Amino acid sequence: MKKDTIFFESNKVEPMTNREALTQIYTALQERGYNAIDQMVGYLTSGDPSYITSYANARNIILKMDRDEILEEILCSYLGIER
């Protein structure tokens, strides 16, 4: 008896910009009652993902991002440098 293969189409997810991702992570931390800036700085300086809640998929999102790239963007934004 031959079985046909069933194909599932997943919803295509548009990639987020770093700004969108960080905003989503910030919101998730705030909603869980954390000091979001302190938690995000903790993660960016240490690389320890336990600083970021798993709520709203925030930890998975930040783990897909390059920490050095995030820090470069933050510095450029702070200094008003276009890249």
Structural commentary:
This protein is mainly α and 83 residues long. It is built from four helices and no strands. α1 packs across α2 (36-46). The protein starts with 17 loop residues before the first helix and ends with a helix. The mean pLDDT is 91.
Helix-residue proportion:
40-55%
Share of residues in strands: under 5%
Structural class estimated from helices and strands: mainly alpha
What is the terminal separation in angstroms? 60 Å
Order of helices and strands: HHHH
Total of helices: 4
How would you summarize what this structure contains?
Helix content is 53%, strand content 0%. The protein has 83 residues and is an all-alpha fold.
Summarize the SSE layout with pairings:
Elements: H1 18-31, H2 36-46, H3 58-63, H4 67-79
Helix pairs in contact: 1-2
